[in-house]
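Page 42, continued from yesterday. The earlier attempt failed because a stray header line got pasted into the input along with the sequence. Redoing it now with the clean sequence only.
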Amino acid sequence: MVFPFHRRRDADETDLDLGELLAKAKAGDNGVREQLLRKYIPFVAKSASRASSRYISRGEDDEFSIALAAFNEAIDRYDGNRGSSFLGFADTVIRRRLIDYFRSREVRVPDIPMAEFEAGDDEEHPYNRIEIQKSLEIYEAHQTEAARREEIERYSAWLAEFGISLEELVELSPKHADARWNAMQVAKVIASRQAFSEYLLQKKSLPLKDLVEEVGMSRKTLERQRKYIIAIALILIGDFEMLREYIA
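This time it went through. Structure tokens are written below.
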């Protein structure tokens, strides 16, 4: 199948500025990142079409937005020291993300047929500002999800040191809202008091005697909610910014 794109020079091999542009984009220069996205839209469309075994139309096929987001991802993941070309690496990332998409069908990107948003870059290659923005949003969503998974994995491993599994937390959670609130308050006290948090981390248990005096809760209740209190306290003590959002 021949795709209707103009053949371009192998920019990855001959464009001496590409490495510098990639470095700036990875360093947080969003202007340069958008410049790269615009410049390589023809490459992204061709790569997506090849991976999909059919012509992929911008603004009509979800696959194009997925591919553009994958190209965005490739900018951050590319390591020139490994010897591979950037475009070869980007093509691989695009193909893998589209395979994931075809398997799951969970990532849905709305069609963007609005021709009035079309514009042109300095080399007169058409691009769509909405498409680029959508690719950035998809990329950020992927990055957030990856960060959340990494955080949960770290949290799960830390819980295991206290004899608690992530799976049992649902069962450990107090059934009544007021009981959950009270347990969270105890966890906050532990996290806010250095002596309490150090005791928890060193002994892998609650400083029950001191907590009874501090929070006025019975020892029996503290023991019954021990694992839940510890689980919440660890979120507050550790570097778990995303998990903290779930704590009222």
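Notes: The chain is about 65% helix and 0% strand.
Reminder to self: strip header lines before submitting.
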